[in-house]
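Follow-up to my post from last week.
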Amino acid sequence: GAVVSQHPSWVICKSGTSVKIECRSLDFQATTMFWYRQFPKQSLMLMATSNEGSKATYEQGVEKDKFLINHASLTLSTLTVTSAHPEDSSFYICSAPPGGRSSETQYFGPGTRLLVL
Amino acid sequence: GENVEQHPSTLSVQEGDSAVIKCTYSDSASNYFPWYKQELGKRPQLIIDIRSNVGEKKDQRIAVTLNKTAKHFSLHITETQPEDSAVYFCAASRGSNYKLTFGKGTLLTVNP
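User reply:
Got it. Predicted complex:
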């Protein structure tokens, strides 16, 4: 149980375009999902907390107009990188707690590797 | 906000030896401490976690200890195997549906 999927796994795009990444909880409902970014050989940095039915909460220094988050349902959150630039190239990973008694535990999606040319 | 420090950044051991990774946290309200293993290019995988009402937890070759007073927790891997080689991250959280704050990671290499 507690499976999280992401799509796409890889994306290459031109500078200035927008990219949408989906995060799905496959066998549980998630009122909260988290989006992280990981640069090579670095740790996971939280970008924002996605809340079903309300606005996302962004971490300090993360531009909310550039990284649009929509938690459309209890099983889907999307991250849209708008007007992507080469410095946005990174590994984007979502996570979700399965709820109930294990709601502290977070399970990660497989990640999306973004390369902006 | 929470700050998690992790040491060492790299650790090299011989197969069969033990490995210990240590973390400290700053937020006294944190009450959940998971450890993740991440292989190159893959997602972080939860390997063990501990809650603040417990001082130690063990799962086969892996154990975690927590000292709430000192605000530090440690991962212990015994009888290491080459497949244990990966990056290990500690994290801290205030609990249910709360964000995780990660340490910078430890690259563990187990030499055959």
